[in-house]
Amino acid sequence: MTADDKDKSNMMVSKNRKYDKGLKAFLHRQLAGYAASIGGMSENEMDRLKGWVAAGNSVFDNPYCMSDERGNPIDYINAIRICDEMEEEAAKPKTEGPLVESGPCWEPDEDLPF
To answer: Shortest CA distance to 76 belongs to which of 95, 86, 62, 93?
Structure first.
């Protein structure tokens, strides 16, 4: 690697760090505004959201690729709420009674119409 290559590499790293700092600052401002607007967030949800944003993600995206009926991404909190509800529903014991045993819908000795 030549000296010029090292200088270019150092410049790229420096630009990336500036970009990362700018992105992080933007994401944290976005988080503050979002948290104020959504309301009703539990401490657990807020912790999960902070971790999501700290990883470099927007509050308006989600890790499940969930979208609304128009194809727009669902925000993180609403997506995890949907997933949590689905997990709770799946964990519930099934309370349905046994299926009513019924015979065939035709007489076994009868000729079928086809």
So the answer is: 62
Whether the full predicted model's pTM is greater than 0.85, yes or no, is no
Handedness of CA 78, 28, 32, 29 (dihedral sign): negative
pLDDT for 60 beyond 90: yes
The Cα 17–Cα 24 span in angstroms is 10
A 10 A CB-CB count for 30 gives 14
Tokens representing 66 are 């969930």
pLDDT the model gives residue 20 = 82
- Measured CA to CA, the distance from residue 94 to residue 106 in angstroms comes to 31
Sign of the C-alpha dihedral computed for residues 31, 32, 37 and 38 taken in this order = positive
Count Cβ atoms below 10 Å from residue 53 Cβ, excluding itself: 19
